[in-house]
Amino acid sequence: MTTSDDLIWIRGGTVLTGDGGGALTDSAIGLRDGLIEHVIPWIDLDGELRADAIDLSEYTIAPGFIDAHVHLLFTCESDHEVTRTTFQRSSTAELALTGARNAVECLLGGITTVRDLGDTRLVVLALRDAIAAGTLPGPRVQSAGAPLTTTGGHLHWCGNTADSVDEVRKVVRALCTAGVDVLKIMASGGNMTRESNVRDPQFSLEELTVAVTEAHRFGRRVAAHSLNAESIRRSVQAGVDTLEHCLWRDREGLPLPTETLVELLRGSTTSVTVTLAGIQRALLPDADPTDVERAAALAASPTGGLSSDFGWVKALMDAGVNVALASDAGVRFTPFRRFHETVRCGIEGFGVTPSQAVGMATHNAAKSLGISDQVGLIAPGLRGDLVVLEGTDVSQSLGAVHQVYRDGRLVVDRGQILLDDLR
Ligand SMILES: [Zn+2]
Q: How far is the CA of 371 from the centre of ligand 1 (A)?
């Protein structure tokens, strides 16, 4: 075993590695130069090194959360219209401040990597670069720039519309040239844009195919917002990499049989991002929502319960589909720092173990984002991104965030952001 002054040892009471399997108990994690170097039983660590180790034996350690679907420039109001209006009325400078604030909130919530899918004016790209340069605290950011939508379509107020094959091609090329990490395309309407239509596709198969072909030619993945079955069918046929929300519903908005969705996705390269936002958190058994939150949650729930609303997710996973769990933070009732409650909604809604739910919000999310060789697991060679949660008994649920490590450095300690490493 390597010994070095630079090697930091951490003792974890319970360790969820992110692979969705059984938890490790009483383990030692060795960090060096921003990377995880060792994961071994504590008992195997020699006495001298044990004496200097950071003792987290009363806590659970998981890979830093990866929130694969957020909106860093949104303000988490209690109403979609208020969030939209606030966004539309904000100057570029105000949006940048909102983004910087939300990036801090992500870290406080144990999130060390995010994929932002709702930029405007390339504000999030600047935020991404400032965090990467070490001048602002925050998670690693993948940014889609402004989502590609149709005139009057979902999030058209982010400012990126196209209405023909040629226009789609041009917008995708412009986004990739501007430096986005991923393309976000609105395959259907969405709830935050009341004049859009959630029950019908927004783009033709040909337009979606051109978007995917161009994005892939630039080496970028494609995330498709999809709230109905026809938009999902077209997106999968076009070869998108991730289906956001993935609501398998007919033109009346009614759920279609899960088996047909499983058949569509089985064996495909398309991953699914299930978003469990604050509106679902209000349905947790021990939640204490306001009357407004409860009413909104019930209005948005087809069946009135998490497990009956989201039973289809486990069927996809059982069929081998890669499913990531994300929050859609920034939308109504969804502050960034409560991400562990989204993971709890996954446990409740999908009928999976805490370890599996954490795996969906770490390793599976990393696979969806194409970065599973860097983050998403507690394993040698990956980045030293860790979230430390209260308590060691994960058999029922998950505790709140106690500490966060990013790139091997402690960045959050008991609700405080540590700024020592800022440049
Ligand atoms: Zn979203």
A: 20
53 and 37 housed in the same domain:
yes
Say yes or no: 256 and 146 in one domain: yes
Please give the distance, rounded to the nearest whole angstrom, from the Cα atom of residue 254 to the centre of ligand 1: 21
Ligand 1: centre distance to CA 117 (Å):
6
Helix axes 229-238, 258-265, angle to 10 degrees: 10
Q: How does DSSP assign 278-321, residue by residue?
A: HHHHTTSTT----HHHHHHHHHH-SSSSHHHHHHHHHHHHHTT-
Tens digits of residue pLDDT in 196-229: 999 999 999 999 999 999 999 999 999 999 999 9
Give the distance (Å) from ligand 1 centre to CA of residue 244: 8
What pLDDT does residue 2 have?
45
Q: Round to whole Å and give the CA distance between 209 and 287.
A: 42
CA 184 – ligand 1 centroid, Å:
10
- pLDDT tens figures, 34-56: 999 999 999 999 999 999 999 99
pLDDT at 155 exceeding the cut of 60: yes
Measured in angstroms, how far is the CA atom of residue 256 from the centroid of ligand 1? 22
pLDDT digits (tens, 9 = 90+) for 353-373: 999 999 999 999 999 999 999
Q: Domain containing 90: what range? A: 65-369
Name the domain boundary from 369, 385, 405: 369
